[in-house]
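Supplementary Data S3. Sequence and structure tokens for construct A.
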Amino acid sequence: MTAPSFAEFLWVWNRTQNLTTPRHHRRIARWLEESWRAGRRDLLLMAFRSSGKSTIVGLFCAWLLLCIPDLRIMVLAADFALAKKMVRNVKRVIERHPLTKALKPARRDHWASDQFTVNRPSELRDPSMLAKGIGANVTGSRADVVICDDVEVPNTCDTAPKRADLRARLGEIEYVLVPGGLQLYVGTPHSFYTLYAREARLEAGEERPFLDGFERLELPLLGPDGRSAWPERFPDARIEAIRRRTGPNKFDSQMMLRPVNIAEGRLDPDRLRLYDAELDYREGNGRPVMFLDGRRLVSASCWWDPAYGAPGKGDSSVIAALFTDQDGGYWLHRIRYLAHDPALAEDEATQLCRQVAAFLREFHLPAVTVETNGIGRFLPGLLRRELAATATPCTVIEAHSRQAKDLRIIKAFDAPLAANAIAAHRSVWATPFIGEMREWQPGGKCRDDGLDAVSGCLLSEPVRLNRVAVTAARKDWRPGGGVLRAETEFDL
């Protein structure tokens, strides 16, 4: 018997369960079958929460086994219980669907809730379907289809180390999947740095998106016309209730599939203006002048928030340089996360001071402020020694911060960001600073070393107002004031 189309297989199942087949389910079914038959083997399905996407994918697995009983399918999920849930669901479909009952094996040991093997022509080592948590060992397994069902959840993506670990574990799929096998990711974005992003996150060290080249189907809850994709279950009143209850960021992430920071961070790096220009230093009439992107710079501030420790561990030692133009615009030109080399004979303080001295020379900075809280009180003297040794004309200013760091960051960033007054050089976007902005929350435990350094620069700069040309004469309020024109007969 020729296997039916997946859409027909889905319709028959829904009829046996007294269910209807919503329009977006039919669209998902057509896309999955067309992709399979066309040989597209790298797929990403994103659909709004509670859309039934995992249910449809489970039925798709049952249909694949009906068409090709020798297939081996592995389900990966954020935890084993979630993966087991999909396998158990497919097992029940095979038991109850009118077209798949012959696939059920006679032996009970082939019919477990976390893995099963259908009646198939070939004798294969791996089961027909297997559930695995993302942290499980998959070495030695082989699969023709790997379903990554909700591998990205808050518990696997809320910090940079967790995101890196998740990507590393997903990289093992290449060693499990047979040549020409299908990878299907199913989920919704839970972070701005989501696996499912269309664009590379430069600040996270990405050169291309993680799922670059994958065929995508995205089904947000609201279409371009503002109408619900599933009005029977999500009418307008319920949608507004969800939006109010969860907040705009979580609604955008989980229902509209937009990668945002669900934690609703206070600092939005999208308000930074990106630029590529470099400093233009000149001397004229015996006076030095400096321009940036065609604007004359009038002041500079440099802040060093020092830290010791092994590279990559603990607090970061960060230095930032910020310039101000004559119209009051801020230009965050460079920010560097300094690290010492433990293999060198020089102590780490000397290494850091030499890096700072080179930074000051490179950007013609007249002064640097060193935060002397904690270990910083020993560094100004060492830095002055390095500056003198290299004949670098730069003043070292010592500053002891007494205000809480969270308040200092809010005070520094709130007004300039709201006014879109901060421009950031492209190199800044390749540092951890942008990630710190997205994830920072007052009172949270996120990394903020770069934020602290830049906030020091911002607070060191005076507020400058744009120069406005006077185009209309002011009325003179003084008695007898004004201009008097006198006619005379003098011949001058």
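Construct B, processed identically:
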Amino acid sequence: MCLVFVGWRAHPRYPLVVAANRDEYHVRPTAPAAPWDESASGGPAGGGGAGADAAEGRILAGRDLVAGGTWLGVTADGRFAALTNVGGSTPPGPGAPSRGRLPVDFLRGALGARTYAREVSREAERYSGFNLLLADRGGVHCVTNRGDERLTELAPGCHGLGNDHLNAMEPKVTGGVAEFGRRLVGELETDELFALLADDEPAAEAEPRGTDLDRVRSARFIRGDVYGTRSSTVLTVERSGTITFEERSFDARAVETGRVGFARPAGAGADFMAVRTPARVRDAAAD
């Protein structure tokens, strides 16, 4: 995952809105977003116990078929996690655990976002460079193992996270956050958020001494035969508890190859349902 926009208490109806692109090598095997069968997971981390099979703890996420983790996921009770990689540093030893387990352990577990972020920060050096966003009803937190500020609680408003620190001053983050905020005014349109993510224009302010690859990767949507944007995701959580989730997948030519949509209606015990992918977020739960 290389770019995540988060709206936290920035919209009167939706306390959490997420628009994200996952950038990865096209040859890396991936399963599209779907509810996970946690009955075979061996139980959740963090003391969740037998609750792994309950609807309230059900995970909806894509899956990395190499290491088994995920880059972005949500549970039926609205707990959210997303991961971006951070390069430019010495990686840990060859036996280091996969970064993709960090979102999964949070989503499977019972720890709150703040507590889990603190737990991860204590062992963060075991992993290659990462940024981890965590959300529950109490707040949104970012933990990283690079830079001086390792733990951050997000203030209400709009935020952006790429492969640098939270709200880094890079064009695709700063410009994207501004556009994201404008799209959170009034009625929320899913297609407008996907249009934001689909912008493949390299930043005009891209580093002049950088390589052609640096310029290509300065765009929100990365086009490339070997490495590029593999999927775009829009997630909303309503105050009522209703969750909507849509993922669009792309091939090496940046051609859309599929869409999946899910909704979790408000109400105790409700689980994710596959739905058609509507243009308006507000129609998802009734679709």
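The first strand starts at residue 3 and ends at 8. Residues 96 and 126 are 6 Å apart (CA to CA).
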